[in-house]
Amino acid sequence: MDKLETAQRRATKTTPLEAMKGPKEEIVYLPCIYRNTGIDKPDYLATVDVNPKSASYSQVIHRLPMPNVKDELHHSGWNTCSSSFGDVSKKRNRLILPSLISSRIYVVDVGTDMRAPRLYKVCWR
């Protein structure tokens, strides 16, 4: 077994309880939508500080508006799953945001500045 395979096995979380023993998130990202509100603005990704020791704890610290209206951002996912934590060959540096109405998929760069993510790429068929 090589070093990479050993690191992957060590980093894999087999149960939710085991995953909870890992490092706690300090930032969370929330897709915010305007559908059926009467507001004709693009949806946005809110960055929220969830570090209890931070002066901006529980506050929205950044908003990243999408470039289009009427997307209806849906759930988000990482480019690499959390079971890869500790695997130096993989990074959770992109957040994938699919849209229900427009079929666009936004790829957001959260690796350059996790407190102020920026749009990396838009995929659309």
Spatial strand order of the main sheet: 4-5-6-7
Q: How many domains comprise the coordinates?
A: 1
Helix amount: 10-25%
The total strand number stands at 7
Main sheet characteristics: 4 strands, antiparallel
β-strand percent reads 25-35%
Globally, the shape reads globular
User: Gyration radius, to the nearest Å?
Assistant: 17 Å
Distance between termini?
Answer: 42 Å
Structural class: mainly beta
Characterize the quaternary organization of these chains.
single chain
- Helical segment tally? 2
Q: Which whole number gives the mean pLDDT?
A: 84
Segments where pLDDT lies below 50 for 5+ residues?
1-10
Q: Name the helix and strand elements from N-terminus to C-terminus, one letter apiece.
A: HHEEEEEEE
Care to describe what's here?
The protein is mainly beta and 125 residues long. It has one domain. Helices cover 11% and strands 29% of the residues. It is built from two helices and seven strands. It has helices spanning 3-11, 16-20, and strands at residues 27-32, 44-49, 60-65, 77-78, 94-98, 105-109, 118-123. Strands 4-5-6-7 form a four-stranded antiparallel sheet, with no helix packed on it. A hairpin with an 8-residue loop joins strand 6 (105-109) and strand 7. The longest helix has 9 residues, at 3-11. Residues 1-10 have low confidence and may be disordered. It catalyses: methanethiol + O2 + H2O = hydrogen sulfide + formaldehyde + H2O2 + H(+). Keywords: Acetylation, Cytoplasm, Membrane, Nucleus, Oxidoreductase, Protein transport, Selenium, Transport.
